[in-house]
Amino acid sequence: MPDFAPLLAHRKATEATPIAALFAGDPSRFAEFSVQLDDMLLDYSKTAIDAEARSRLLALAEAAGVEARRDAMFAGEKINETEGRAVLHTALRNLSGAPVTVDGQDVMPQVLDTLARMESFATGVRDGSITAPSGKTFTDVVNIGIGGSDLGPVMATLALAPYHDGPEVHYVSNVDGAHIHDVLEPLDPATTLVIVASKTFTTIETMTNARTAQKWLADAGLDSGGHFAALSSATEKTADFGIDPSRVFGFEDWVGGRYSLWGPIGLPIMIAIGAENFRAFLDGAHAMDTHFREAPLIANMPVMLALVGVWHSNICGYDTRAVLPYDQRLLRLPAYLQQLDMESNGKRVALDGSALAANSGPIVWGEPGTNGQHAFYQLIHQGTRVVPCEFLVAAEGHESDLAHQHDLLVSNCFAQSEALMVGRPEADTPHRVFPGNRPSTTLIYRQLDPFTLGRIIALYEHRVFVEGVIWGINSFDQWGVELGKELATAMLPLVQGGDASAKDGSTAGLLTVLQGLRD
Ligand SMILES: O=P(O)(O)OC[C@H]1O[C@H](O)[C@H](O)[C@@H](O)[C@@H]1O
Hints:
The chain is α/β, with parallel strands linked by helices and 519 residues long. The protein has helices at residues 5-14, 19-24, 29-32, 51-63, 66-74, 108-127, 151-159, 177-184, 204-219, 235-240, 267-273, 275-294, 301-315, 333-345, 377-382, 403-422, 450-471, 482-495, 505-518; strands at residues 34-37, 40-43, 101-102, 105-106, 140-144, 168-172, 192-197, 228-231, 248-249, 320-326, 363-365, 389-394, 440-445. It folds into three domains: 4-75 and 284-475, Rossmann fold (3-Layer(aba) Sandwich), CATH 3.40.50; 107-273, Glucose-6-phosphate isomerase like protein, domain 1 (Rossmann fold, 3-Layer(aba) Sandwich); 486-518, no CATH class.
């Protein structure tokens, strides 16, 4: 952990100055405390960060070696030390094919070859040249996956709805039979393509749902082989499952699950929006990669977003951050970011295994505005806890005939950050007082198109990376998900009536009640 003491002292000394007052002393504050990248701007002027705080935050990034670590990541070094792996999701969007080496081997020919195979498959499914064995065109695609094999594709598919011109794409993730039941029920098995998305091809939820889908096809008298494709790095396991190798799209262990939507795991997105739009999505992410690699730290959007995060978490002591897209199609962005951020940076030990001396990743949550306004913004404005808010908004919607609604949407977004900062200190009753001085950032972009969505996701990926470097943790492993999985496997026979006496009192009690309710 870096030495936060100077920043904490600075915070103490300046805490009494409201954020709004920082503008009075500095007419160029907006320009100086924002970062622009083409038609996208990150405004962090509505935070308490002043010039001194910022230079101290930048010094933290420098002292942590953010730039060297970033370069090591892009160079294919094994920065995921606990798993002995490189971290190269960025190679998946390197469409120029410029060499990227892992263990002395250029990975780009393989990456581009897989992309070409995905494109030919997706295009075939879209134009009807790849059909079900009966010769019928696929009208629906069901992607079965969970975590990183679900959240990114779901989020991006929803985000890019105006670009959908392929078969309808559906997602099943939960092991709860209700999920697959409700998704499959309205579909015709004869015209449905099932994609099993699992990096490891061992995840119990996904394998269970895949077998249910296999049975659904078999019960309809169909040969499931012609209805299946797989996205996985475990090609032996996909073969064991009976999926034809020509329908398997593989990737390497240097693509982490939560960073995997840029490659084969993005196939359902590509089927929905087409290969060209998918390339624009990759290009957008690559544009953010280039910016992240080249821009000086102070003008570097992911770095500054990370430093705002460190400021709010470690210096101001705020435990959560709310992601509030004023963009209905980013409905699942908060859920996606929960995995990206909390699975990456929810760590309690440093790279060397020593316990952290300060907090690492915060709790991430959120909902689209304006819906959130009518739900939890009460707490954000008047609660006892301060929640730093991250607003996202497009200058233009896609519905030109509804531009007046978009104006209302943008007005609400800007009004919220204004209200949070300015507040209403005087009121006739204490209940109507808004204390104000509550921080927020705003990311504004021209329109939510594939290129911009790619930039937004890559922005958050690199933000998480920079924060992880500053905290000295490994952002690319996820050991914390293991124990629950192991215990769930051991729990199954007990749920099915086995002897629970060795369990703790509460678990044994629950198992007894379960059996009682089932009798
Ligand atoms: O793609 P899979 O191997 O099925 O993994 C799916 C997910 O499960 C795991 O529990 C991890 O926590 C996630 O990072 C991963 O994305």
